[in-house]
Amino acid sequence: MLFLKLAWRNLWRNRKRTLITVSAITFAVVAAVFMQSINRGSHEVMIDNMVRFHTGYVQLQDYRYDAEPSLDNSFFFDDEIRDRVKKTYPETELVLPRIETFMLAGNEHTTRGALVLGILPEQEDAFSGLKNHLADGRFFDPAEQAAVVTKGLAERLQLSIGDQLLLIGQGRFGMSANGLFEITGILDHPLRDMNNQTVYIPLETAQFLLSADDHITALLVHPGGERHVRAAANAFNEEFSGDDLKAYTWPEMMPELLQLLEFDLVGAYFMSGILYIVIGFGFFGTILTMTLERTKEFGVLVSVGMSRVRLGMVLFLETLFISITGVISGVVAAWLILYWFYLNPIELSGEIAETVIEMGWEPVLPMSFAADQFYMQGLIVFVIAMFVFLFPLIKIMRLNILEAARS
């Protein structure tokens, strides 16, 4: 308790020096969190778009479909399976059946390869807000002989609302699959690759077209949030193991994207390393100045009988108080700054904005609010601060009393 009182009083004997040191640590935490937030924010937007508009959080498929994505490896789906899914994992919020295949999409003069998705429009919209991305027209009714075409594909085929879309392909077990569909909507899809090649048609209509009555290629499950993904997949794999079905999580379905993000993180870690080095040298300069200013004080204390170990303990507690105060202040300040940018996002302009819009994102700088980035960056800065503060401890252990008295 005596050491705590001495350390606390020493801190406020020179308030200016203490506030400068605390401010340096606070700034370091804010800079580290802000940099991490920008980097992770773009990754979260990319993953969120892929999950909501393509893979879903958890997907049930025939176990052969992953190796051979063919309609022959579709599986039977009815209300009983839907109920089993919800019973197996009660936290399940949405169950989205889809049938997916590649076909030729064309007009009177030309054709293009297209990804054809048979969906239930209301359920898809509840999960992804798909209807919010309609550029023109409307979504079809569940049993309508109609299609919604993505903007890029519509422009390539020069199609508009009310035109007829021809789909030519192969159905289940090699059956011929051809049909004419009225275009009721043009969709500006958030994912650029899908925006250039996707056609949505009603699930029931797609099943009839592809000779796959009551069959789907994938059952997307929204288990109530990211933290439930692994538990839900394990539960479904156990429940449906005898039905030739397998549950995949979104990371298992997007390994290439995750590898790309990991590669991008290498650059972010490199920049973070540079930032930490700058932070460390900034701390060291501050502590070096503080130590030199107090050299005579240390010499007097040792000369009157205070042991070097006890003096080191007091200095360590001073360091601990300063580091904790700086880190906590930095975390709070970083959260407030990120929250302000969340309410008032940084808008991009020029070529950068055009590039971001083409990728299907809003032209703003995304910020991540992941909790771990606050405490991890705070912890790293805290460790750096404690490491740098070893300098005055070493100085005390090697202190020459006569030289200190003359300083």
Protein architecture, described:
It is a single chain. The chain has 407 residues and is an alpha+beta fold. It has 2 domains: 2-50 and 257-406, no CATH class; 58-222, no CATH class. It has helices spanning 2-13, 15-55, 79-88, 121-128, 151-157, 192-195, 203-209, 229-239, 250-253, 255-293, 295-303, 308-343, 350-358, 371-388, 390-397, 401-406, and strands at residues 58-62, 75-76, 94-106, 111-119, 134-137, 146-150, 164-170, 176-187, 198-202, 215-216, 218-222, 245-249. It has a 6-stranded mixed beta barrel, surrounded by 4 helices. A two-stranded antiparallel ribbon has the order 2-10. Helix 2 (15-55) packs antiparallel against helix 10 (255-293), helix 2 (15-55) runs antiparallel to helix 14 and helix 12 (308-343) packs antiparallel against helix 15 (390-397).
The arrangement of helices and strands along the chain is: HHEEHEEHEEHEEHEHEEHEHHHHHHHH
Distance between the termini: 31 Å
Taken as a percent bin, the fraction of beta residues is: 15-25%
Q: Which sequence of strands runs across the widest sheet? A: 3-4-9-6-8-7
Residue windows where pLDDT falls under 50 for at least 5 positions: none
- The radius of gyration is 31 Å
Q: Total domains, how many?
A: 2
Instruction: Output the structural class.
Output: alpha+beta
* CA-based shape: elongated
Level of helix content? 55-70%
